[in-house]
User: Fold this.
Amino acid sequence: MFVALQVKDRVRVTSIASHWDKRLDALREMTDSGQLICPGCEQLLWLRAGMERRRHFAHRQLSECPLGRQSTEVQEAKAQLFGWLETKYPGRVEIDMVIGVPGWSRLMDLVVEPEPGRRFGYW
Assistant:
């Protein structure tokens, strides 16, 4: 998964956002010190940043989290679309975000808010 929540203030952290490219040590420290949790199941996460796959978060323990069951192909498609959208709407793109009205919410793959109060999503 590419998104985590900061424990202290619930701010979303996206591992593949370009502003982390040169701050990988800071991102790794956040996970190592237990500051980041899964937005789906609230378990602690690790940062995985290797040579073969994109930078992503992984559960420290296997769980039944819905965010942990997405295929590599789906994750890669989301990452490519995120990268493209981020060039068009810097700082305004989110991955795996719940939007909707109370009682009917849907986990969107990507959400863009080009201006306050106006959103569109990809599912």
